[in-house]
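Run log, item B.
One chain of 139 residues. Sequence copied directly from the ordering sheet:
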Amino acid sequence: MPLVNSVGTCEECHKMFEFTLFHSGVTNSCYAYCEGCGTTAILDISDGRFPLELVKFSAYKVIAPDLERHLKPCACGARFTARAAPQCPHCRQVLSAAKAAQYVERSVAKGSPNWRWQMSWSGNYYIVIEGRQIRNNFK
């Protein structure tokens, strides 16, 4: 269940894009971004292929680096990693988590005026840009 569907603006090319914000605790998941195109991999903690020994290191946030080797590559050919970040769908520049606060907080503030963005791409909240996502892409 998404927290918010809204529009953001790339700080590099200044073009607008749609995004959806999720909370990994609510979705019982963890996530990673593709280092090549910024697609979001959403991994359900309850998926039987999820390595049990890595659940405590990955649950409800960005994946632990040890989980990377258990994931299939992205359709673009690049890998999903713990250090990758979302990218602008137009210019492919990595989006700044700090600058994303402007559009993320503006979108969420309508329903929760005291809520503040986590200011990183590794916390409980994750973002899907223009619907680019894959679920449970385990090997």
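Observations after the first pass:
- The chain has one domain: 4-135.
- Residues 98 and 104 are 10 Å apart (CA to CA).
Flagged for discussion on Thursday.
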